[in-house]
Structures are given as C-alpha cells and as structure tokens.
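Record pair follows.
FIRST:
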Amino acid sequence: MAAVLPKVAGRLTGGAPLAPLVWFKTGGAAEWLFEPTDIDDLSDFLADLDPAMSVMGLGLGSNLIVRDGGVPGVVVRLGKAFAQVERLDDVTLRCGGGASGILVSSTARDAGIAGIEFLRSIPGAVGGFVRMNGGAYGREVKDILVECGIVLRSGERRTLAPGDLGYTYRHSALPEGAIVVSATFRGHVGEPAAIGAEMDRIAAEREASQPLRSRTGGSTFTNPDGHKAWALIDAAGCRGLTIGQAQVSEKHTNFLLNLGGATSADIEALGEEVRRRVKAHSGVVLEWEIQRVGVAA
C-alpha cells in the first residue's frame, strides 16, 4: 500500500495510534495519518490519492469517539502551519483550520474584536467549528463566518460562503472527505478589557459546571427542540451510570467520561444506554452530537 500512496512533503504514518490525539484517550489506529506541511501538500496528496480511499479530518480530538478497530483510509491532521490567526481589519480575523478556539478568541480580544468570545468555550479547532456549526452561549459559527476555505476529497480548492454550507443546529452540508483549511470570522468593535472579562466569565462558568479536567469528549447529545439534553438524562436516572470504565458525569450529565480504563466500545454503549433510558422515560430520542468514526474491534 505504501508504494501506491502519493509522495508528500509532510508526514505520512502508517498504523498511527489515534487514542493519544483524542480527548477520550481511547480507540484504535489510523490506517494512515497524514500531517501536511501546507495547503499545496494537502491538495496535491488528495488529488493523487486513490479515489476509493476514504479521508477524514481530525482537529484537536474533542467531540469524537474513535472506535477500537481504528479508522480505515487516511486521517488528515492539520498542524502548526494551519494554526495561524491573522487580523484583516478592525473587526475581521482570518484563521487557519487548525487554530484553537482559545487562540482565536484571545487574538480577537487583543485586537478589540467583540462577538467572538463564545469560541473560548468550545473545545476544538476552527475546522471542526465550521463543519459542526459550533456554538455556545447563544452564538454559533454561522453568526460570525464570512467565508471558509476547503480542500475537497478530489484535491480541488474552494471558498464557500455561509449560505453554501447548509447550516442547521450543529450540522453543515460539507461534502464527505472535505478538509476545512481556513475560515474568516467577523465580529464588531469592542474594548479589550470588556471582551476579556466576558471570556473570563465564560471560562469560570464552564469550569464550575462541566468536567473539564476529565477524559471526556465534550457535549454528547444535541439539545432536542424544547428540551435540554442534560435534564432529560438526569430525569431518566442516568447520573453516574457506568458501563465498564465509562461513566455519565455526575457533574454534568450530558458528558460521558473515561474513568481510566474505558474502551471506545464502553463509551459508545453507555451513550446508547442513555438514549434508550431517555426514550423510555420521556419519549424523546436523543441524537449524538459527538462524532463516532472507525470500525469496532
């Protein structure tokens, strides 16, 4: 297989363990892990790659369950070359697809750009925010996105406006295998001190209410219309529920935890048991917000 893969300028690793790269610290290996040096390297690689081989983007590894059998095909991970944040004008930032929400929001604060503070609260990178229409505290990526740059599975580069992305709640219509390499965000003029105070408030609120220091994937299920997922889970008696070494957080019931020895199968099975109990108790069907990828062991 190695002989037929395209040559790259970056790093291409066969059988690369993914557990160290995801927040749950579970799961199998990528058949191939590709870390491109720049957009040309990524575009050329995808253009020359066998069209039958699947491609998946990996950001900072939050909001993701990698199944124990690993991920077939190529996993693309954007490194430092894609983690830059550049100020374009008084209210606009251009961000690489690998830039973290903390870096983006901090850069906005220092530049006096308000309206982007909510990204401080979302674990992950710009590529994931754009793909999932990430949001918190009443704001979503669609509210600040001007355009994004993507590389399609074919290697073709495109620039898309928000209207091209088919945004709904925590979902976009980005094609399978497309990699988000950049995004331009627009806020409004604000005072750095006030922006920083709001970011501090958000950080303190998250610390108080969410199990941020645990092995978790972030918010597990989307909020159904008219409901809060955590309240439905709590009412169904799932607080602290365990399967193997996977547990429903006692601090915030819409978070699943790896207590130290969980497998991805444990975590996914626990999520499905939560869904079963919530449906039996309230009739509401919870939908996964965490992405589940790969194959079972």
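SECOND:
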Amino acid sequence: MITVLTGGTGGAKFVDGLRRILPPEELTIIVNTGDDHDWWGLYVSPDIDSITYVLAGILSPERGWGVRGDTFHCLQGMKEFGEPSWFSVGDRDLATHLLRTILLSRGRTLSETARIIAEKLGVRSRVLPMSDQRVQTRIQTPVGELSFEEYFVKRRYQDPVKSVRFAGASESKPAPGALEAITKADAVLIAPSNPITSIGPILAVPGIRDALRETAAKVVAVSPIIGNAAVSGPAASLMASQNLSATIAGLADYYADFLDMLIVHDSDAETAHALSSNGVEFVSTDILMRTTEDKVRIANSALACALPENADVQVAS
C-alpha cells in the first residue's frame, strides 16, 4: 500500500503520475481540507475534488482544477444576478458540490461523502480527507485575516503574509483510516505541494505527525522548491511567515522529524550535498512536471526511493 499526503495543483500532478503506474487499490491519498470553502451555500472541498477528478481521469489539464471541458453558465448567471463570482465553479463541478452538501445535510461525514463521490466517478483508490472535522487555513495579512481561498483566489496571493493558523485543528481528529494508512503503508509519499498551506493543515491534525514519525515505511517527499523560489504559487512568502527559508533547507527543517528522503531539483544538488548530514537523505533529478511523461517519471522516482527493492527505475543521486 502506498499512502500519499497531498494538496494543491502540484499534488494533483504527482497523483496523476502515480495513478498511471500503480494498481488503484494500492493507492491511498490523504488530502488537505484546510482550503474547504462555503460558496453559494454549498460545501466545496477543492483539493479532494481535484484528487478525485484526476483519479477519475476528468481533471481539466488546462486549469489544473475542475472538470475537463466544463462550462460556466451557472457562474455567469450568478454574476448577472449580482452574486459573488470570483470563485470559478464550473457546471459539472457544481454537481459535485451539490451532492456533497446534500449528503452532509443527511448526516454523512466528509470522509463518507468523499468515498461516495469517488465511487460514483469510478475511482477505486481510497481518497481520505485529513479529518471529518472542519479545519480552516487562515492567513493573517495587513488587510485582516483571510480564508485560504480569499487569499489565494480572490486576492491572487498579493497580500504580504504575517502568519498562518489552522483554525479548529487542535480539536480535530484524523479521518477514519488515515492513521492506519500511514502506519501500515509500504511507503509514504509527500507530494510536491505547498508545505505550509497544503501539507501543513494535514500535519496540524493531532496524531498525523506522530504516525509519520512512527511508521516503519520510508517517508519520501518531492520538493516544491527550486533554489529559493517555489515552482509555482506563494510557498515562499508562506514559508517566510513560519520563519523558514524558501529553500530545500527550509523544507527539510519543516519535515525533519519524520522525513527520510527529499527529492530535489538537479540545480539544488550541491546544496543538498551540504545538507546531507542532518539525517535526511537527498536525491536530485528534474522535478518539473510539464508533461504526462514528467509526472510518471517523478512518480517512479519517488517509488524507487521509497521501495528500492522493488524499483524498476534508476534515480540519479
């Protein structure tokens, strides 16, 4: 069993690579829900949806979120009615949010809704929210505290970040099966997701970080950082808000208590060599995922690091 911690578009690309080389039943994905958002009275879970759509083969490759080929008639209609329209929800995507909201109103948990929606879309891998309880990523900025979607989508992450907190995390519990998926995995992979706002909320759920420390499986992460900048998105400013450098050194520090190996870009190989004495192993390769072949290559690289006895690829170190 391979367990993945993921969130964001980089995480979806990584899972896309894994789904192409692993039997679906062997893949469990624990997904960030700190981005979950109330929109037009509906419960939207962006990262769960992106992972479910990519596993179903219907994720929009152009946008990296939402359904391939979707239309936006409802969004346009709501805009004409004078309702908020900054959060782009497609028409087929809207059906997912409607079903989730209906199921939750009938007493289903978030993990149950994730399973039901995945099954209806033909997904055979296990998709788990990090928790059934509401945990919200909150970004403190000069204009006030924002939800992640307000910060990232509405304001296009232009506001300086003072701090980040995960509201509700201390009272939350891991979703059923999440701890077992980590402790009994053959390998645990950390996707090249934003460490603060995609992986950070998962780690903030009590018990998750302990399980990562205790698992006998190798824990391997793919870096979302090259040099001193994120491959995409606001990871650099978010890491700075946590007093971490936006480098592989800062990333290794953030994951240091559970990480066995970090896959970094070739250009960071020299830096990685200098850091290799801190207990984390480093492997360098081209980590950019521009094409389907790139995604498969990175997925194979991560599996080769986590399960070297079963690896069918060679990773340059």
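COMMENT: The chain has 13 helices and 14 strands.
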